[in-house]
């Protein structure tokens, strides 16, 4: 069976275009949906429709667990599942999707290998052994793709939190300076920062819920630092724990930490601006200078040849 090369190129171009659009739009849509779900569950309480969605999700989890047992994933230790759970929490993803992530690590090598083998065999007409070799390489890449995607998601989320963290500290400082308690201040800041920083808003809403439900307030605050994995958040958590332990005022400490984080963000922006000229050297040599030489030399060459 032969496949027309032009038709295959059109199909692959369309698939690439759709994938690019999904990659651009899905993080924003997922962040908006996740923020609305967190607000409904932890502020307004669960609704009957959400109870039905949970009841529908349980059979899906059972099906995933059955598939995992079929491929003999009993070797997945408890520590490994806890590690995946922590990474999903750091990425801002639902914590009940550990089975789905493990299943993706199983299915992605198969899908990558089959797709790469069919693509190479249909487009370039290579033999089966060459296509099988390409499939093995694609399977190795497919096995690491879920981990790479999750790591990139965590890094992007940390970058967004780091960028808006000084503003959150300023708002938290003003709320606590006005006499609000910690829970009320976090709720107020989460509500105000929902449009500009949904990740920080989600973390504050979860922290308020844990402060209300957990017996140890220290554990609730430490969970906030563990989920974000940022030193700046760890500093604020340590200050909040010490203030509650010794009964000290936290408003002045928050103001100082907000000033330090703002100065740190400004220094990082200066470092990026200073590193821009060396990074532009290679693109200018490779892309700009040949075009510039062609524009300068082409008229003289045309006159000389004429």
UniProtKB/TrEMBL annotation:
It holds the Pfam family T2SSF. It is found in: Cell membrane. Keywords: Cell membrane, Membrane, Transmembrane, Transmembrane helix. InterPro entries: T2SS_GspF_dom. Residues 169-297 form the Type II secretion system protein GspF domain. It comes from the Bacteria. The chain crosses the membrane at residues 6-31, 98-120, 132-155, 280-302. Its main location: membrane. GO terms for cellular component: plasma membrane. It is a multi-pass membrane protein. This is Type II secretion system F family protein. It comes from Roseicyclus persicicus.
């Amino acid at each position: 069976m032969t496949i027309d090369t032009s038709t295959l190129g059109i199909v692959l171009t369309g698939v690439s275009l759709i994938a690019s659009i999904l990659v651009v739009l899905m993080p924003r849509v997922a962040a908006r949906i996740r923020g609305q779900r967190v607000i409904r569950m932890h502020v307004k309480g669960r609704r009957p429709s959400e109870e039905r969605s949970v009841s529908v999700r349980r059979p899906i989890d059972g099906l995933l667990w059955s598939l995992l047992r079929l491929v003999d994933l009993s070797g997945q230790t408890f520590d490994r599942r806890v590690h995946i759970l922590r990474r999903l929490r750091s990425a801002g993803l639902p914590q009940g999707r550990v089975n789905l992530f493990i299943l993706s690590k199983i299915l992605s090598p198969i899908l990558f290998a089959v797709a790469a083998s069919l693509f190479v065999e249909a487009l370039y007409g290579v033999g089966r052994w060459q296509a099988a070799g390409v499939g093995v390489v694609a399977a190795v890449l497919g096995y690491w793709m879920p981990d790479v995607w999750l790591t990139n998601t965590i890094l992007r989320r940390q970058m967004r939190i780091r960028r808006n963290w000084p503003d959150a500290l300023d708002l938290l400082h003003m709320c606590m300076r006005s006499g609000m308690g910690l829970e009320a201040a976090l709720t107020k800041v989460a509500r105000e920062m929902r449009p500009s920083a949904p990740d920080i808003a989600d973390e504050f809403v979860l922290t308020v819920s844990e402060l209300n439900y957990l017996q140890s307030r220290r554990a609730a605050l430490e969970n906030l630092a563990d989920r974000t994995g940022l030193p700046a958040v760890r500093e604020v958590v340590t200050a909040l724990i010490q203030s509650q332990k010794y009964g000290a005022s936290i408003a002045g400490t928050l103001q100082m930490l907000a000033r330090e984080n703002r100065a740190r963000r400004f220094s990082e922006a200066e470092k990026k601006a200073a590193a821009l000229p060396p990074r532009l050297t290679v693109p200018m040599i490779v892309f700009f200078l040949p075009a510039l030489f062609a524009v300068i030399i082409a008229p003289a060459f045309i006159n000389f040849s004429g």
